[in-house]
Amino acid sequence: MPDMYISVPYDTDGENGLRGDPVNSKPVAGSIPRGGHPAYDIPDTNEGYEKAKTELKNPYEVSEENLENGKAMYTIYCISCHGAKGDGNGYLSEAEKFVGIPNYKDRDITDGSIYHVLMHGKNLMGSHSSQLTYKERWQIVQYVEVLRTDLLK
């Protein structure tokens, strides 16, 4: 039993695991990604934005519950810049901390483009992917569409 006295050193932070495979190179069979939804694989590029804009659709039906939570999340994360009406006149805009915040009325946006911007950010807006769950992001998308419709009237 020599290994009991002289252990074989394994570098736990090493590049290769016990069987010689790279560490974390394959997901565990049957595992579910964090959040229970597939990873967002549309790249943060202009082409990725256009792809999301045309191909990405909201998987949730518009409902009172989704709109209510979308409004709550919008109030927490979006209202300070985009304003309560989505007109770009939030507190930070009025205080001249940020200029040029877009008005939803003036934008050619879709469910997919809104979701893409929540995931990756755009211009001065940073990503909100770590603050919001998959469902919450789509609920905000629904609420932004309601605001946009109201602005177009």
TrEMBL record:
InterPro entries: Cyt_c-like_dom, Cyt_c-like_dom_sf. PROSITE patterns: CYTC (PS51007). Keywords: Heme, Iron, Metal-binding. It comes from the Bacteria. Residues 26-45 are annotated as: Disordered. Gene3D superfamilies: Cytochrome c-like domain (1.10.760.10). One of its GO terms (molecular function) is electron transfer activity. Residues 65-148 form the Cytochrome c domain. This is Cytochrome C.
